[in-house]
Queue: 4 jobs
Job 1
Amino acid sequence: MIILFRHDDTAQINIMTGNFILRDWSMCQAVWRSPLLPLQTCTISSQDSHGPFHVGSGLRFKQDILLYLNSYGQRRTGTLTAELQKYDFSAIRAALVASVPGKQNVRDTDPGQETLWGWPGFRHVLRSITPRNPKAKPRIIMQCSSVASLSKKWMENFQNMLRLHKCSQSSPSPNSAFSLVFPTADEIRRSIDGYATGGSIHMKTQTPAQQKQLDFLRPMLCHWAGDEKADVKSAKDNGKTPIRQAQRRRAAPHIKTYVRFSDKNMDTVDWALLTSANLSKQAWGEETNGKGEVRICSYEIGVLVWPALWDDGGDVQMVPVFGRDIPNDDDYKNVEKEEKVTGDEVETTKDEGGEGIIANGNVQKRTWVGLRMPYDLPLVPYAEDEMPWCASIPCSEPDWMGRTWPGFGAS
């Protein structure tokens, strides 16, 4: 994360997935940038400064990020948090989802008053989000650069948490489809830096316990690039479905994203998280123990967004965008077709104010929010004989620069 204090008396928060090492920046990374935050023009009362604040609001974001920074200790971040406290966060439309090392009692903590870390904090935000169609079968895609040692029970609990939404309360939808995007050795071999990037991407598959983990992950595994077979599989399995290219195939993934698409077509997004947190208990937290505590081992930080954050009195849709930041007609034409096919009584039109919809004779504003995608759609599942990249396994086949891989940690 980089926090900028500018000469024009504004501040900007930049949350990113890359570390400050050269190698990371030849890999696929992402950054969330806040709007420019002006200095506060009025003093906030002591009561107002402690909430409770609405999830997704700038005030809640400010509360959470200041608590996150304070967790590093006064000596390290005291000056930073004191300075950041002076700025107005009201322009931010996002929720902070972060992790802080330590134990937190999730049974006795009121998430409306106190920030929860790790998966309990993620869960709290998800329970405030209404999906586009609560009855539809969503597609939830997890994508990361490392998968740690996980028990099947922990993974099932994490998936159940990802299924939650405002309409489900404590009972998640049982019919969600999950995918885990992770590169194969072939995709690492053909990446920009070849095998050199492989030292930053980890999933162990060698021991019996690791093989057992791979067995329950395998049905979810999908390619990062998938371009070796993507054209064939798309034409064969998806009929007329075109490949939407993110233009990141050759940049090996160090980015971490968790995205809920509204349905199997993946034309609209219910929510999306950009984070530093890989798929691990260290990052997200252990299962709740008998005392109601969740133990977290690492600092992580991420930003969660969803369509309703841009609801200013009209209809809002979040759509995946490929190779650019702003959506265009190609990105939402499938949504409009779906409305006509399903018989929804809405007609898309354009007025002087821009894009709008007509419903019951009244013109309402329609806002399209673009989500920049790091991987292509549709996804390409692993074949039965394909394996995820394992950095500790030597590779004798040369990468595109003619180098072989001796195995991570080999002398």
Job 2
Amino acid sequence: MPQLAACQYGKDNIRVYKVHRDEKTGLQSVTEMTVCVLLDGEIETSYTQADNSVVVPTDTMKQTTYIMAKQHPVNPPELFASILAAHFTDTYKHVHTAKVKVITHRWTRMTIDGEPHPHSFLRDGSETRNAEATSKEGQGISVRSAIVGLLVLKSTGSAFHGFIQDEFTILQETNDRILSTDVDCGWTWETFSTLHAVEEVGSKFDDTWNTAREITLKTFANDNSASVQNTMYQMCEQILAAETGVDAVDYSLPNKHYFEIDLSWHKGLENTGKDAEVYAPQSSPNGLIQCTVKRDGK
């Protein structure tokens, strides 16, 4: 007899834009988000018995997201995700778990004639600030913050040697290579007992996100990298040291390769080793290096 092993459902790709207008200064601030809501609980009969009486319509989730965005702050995104997740577990008693993911897209204020413009912005890259909140009945709210899509590159200061070499290996050791990656960095906070506990963190969410980004960029740039593995571990250590409220830090870094092009066939033109200047960027395949570092005792 088959049994339903797991189930959840919700609304994905809810696009939300909110503007804050300061009447005194005339300054406007904008936030654009993509939100995903997923619910779990006593909903099995909607799958096994076509019982829709336990279903909160996904359109209701969308409308609720809009209403919560109107009635509550959407920044920091960790707080808004927690407010939305807690709403669903508090409002619908048969819903025991609500997961909310918020992707905040970059709108950076324009500088015109040396002055910040009061209401004009530009999209300066694909990097996003992400937040995930999971509200579980009787277990509090867990929150994960993240930096996603931060594309970085350095033209030297990276090596890779001393690795296993056998009959399947053609990769040559190197003391100098290009290092580039799309940073996906996340950190998980200590579980919050209530929504009020999330609210009390306040601006620390923003401060920690900025600190984690600064650590990532500074370590990437300054570390004479022996490997992506070691460089990302150093980043994790520093973020844990900077914020005691964080339980764990994780990184996922694809290694974006740039290969030397042998041009010696053209009149002996040297373009390898110390003479390499022109490279061929590679889209795939790529290395993928991941790790999670937890605080001692966690």
Job 3
Amino acid sequence: MHTAIVPRKDSPDACRHYTKLEQVPWDIQKYYHQRYNLFSRYDDGILMTDAAWYGVTPEPVAIKVAKHIALGASADKAVIIDCFAGVGGNTIAFARSGRWKRVYAIERDEDVISCGMHNAKLYGVDQKISWFHGDCFDIIKNELSPLCQCSVVFASPPWGGPGYRTEAVFDLTTMQPYSLQQLLESFRQLTENIVLFLPRTSDLRQLAKANEETKRIKAIHYCMAGASK
């Protein structure tokens, strides 16, 4: 039914491993100081694109998210689909949890998915993950739909860059490139088992309204070292 993509033999130029602060573009230098929170095995050769530095879920948070999903999912849910896998932060945590028979990771950016596959191998979980390059909505509908009844769909969508922090309350209806409504409408065609990882300042009233006709939802606020994530 499906096959994982084949990783490149050599990393593309956009996949970088910085070893000195002076190598790092000024606008992501603060994230470089947090590199071991992003990936504890950073020094083993973790690769990221520059944009991934502010988009990847920090490893301690990813591990906690994976634990909560594992505990909350019913026993008949055997696989998890990471719709916006990026460079592998959440995907690796899911694979390391040991809860899932298979982790399916989807990423539309070719450079980013190359980084993710490389990073999963560094953590020794590459054999537990099937990677798909393309649009998550198309891939779930056309390739993974037979699995949806036994799946949890996880989505940490792009939020439009770090600029979201300037908003006291983040408007989920204008989130780019995918609004809350678009995400839920697309995923609900396949399953009700949906987990969204959203900005910490998200408007919870919008989230509640979007779920008026479904069961009660749970919202969890994650923190690391006393700071919201």
Job 4
Amino acid sequence: MAQRQVSDDHALHFLASEGYLPLALADHPGMVEAYTKLFTQTSEFFNLPPGSPEKTEYQAASGAAASEEGYLKIPNEKSIMTVRTSQHCPAILRTELQAAWNLTGSLMQKIMTAIANTLELQPDVFSPFIEPCMTLPQTERTPTFVRMFRYDRPQGPTTTGPKVNAEKHKDLGMLSLVVGHSPGLQALDSKTNAWISVEDQRNLPPGSITRSGGLTATLLAGETLAFLSRGSYTAGVHRVVCAPPSAENKGDPYRFSIVYALRAAPAPLFTKCFESRVVGEFGPGETVEGQSSAVLFEKIMRTHWNVNAAPSVREEQRRKFEGMNGSGGQGVANGQERALG
């Protein structure tokens, strides 16, 4: 994997074909310090008592959208805090989260410009959809968010090995950046159909974890980017698998990760602007002429079920989705690939 990342063009070619790309966080100024501080505050937040005001005030709604904003605990699996605005962010997280969000937003903008160049599109073609998301909004939500995870590692006398804490799925948006403090993220290799532990130091450029203060960073392409590039960029299929506490993970009963998910802000969308020699032309049923990008996002979201919802909710979503696709249909055969994170 590391051998292919010899230049930006090679890196983006790998992202396009595989849907994921490891990065060295230390190569991007300020990011190691920002995320190290945010991990510290994230741990403190999740360690607060269940009835603390910082958790109860920001309790997530119930149902399928529970992971979209606020605090959610799924027993024996994971705890989640999703933030979309400064106003709806616990004070214990606010300063550090804003710093990490703004630095990541700037990085994502540069990457999206580079992606546009690989597609032979205008460099600013993505700008109307990403510029409103570059800094943490004070009060006005955009679809973009930062989501903090604390995954429960398997432990106890019946533990037999690693546990899948988030099933096989794809992200919905343009790009996601996953920053981890220990291995757990796995991506599906498009050629071998095998799972790659993308945060394992054996699969990363030499020294990148040490230089990055023990943190890993992985880019994931999402379904919206896959649509707008007409498949030139593949949405990365991934999952999270947590190993039991061990010397390798310092006996920590949890795995932490932080995800910046760049989703398109509502703006008029013209698919003609995304056509090029590389992308080709959008066909019947694909063309959009001035509708809000939110319509496209809703259309994509309706074909997925949520791996971060409570188990009973996601099982109901899965059954409905499989029913809509009919027995033996594509959605059934590839059901887990139609899950969203």
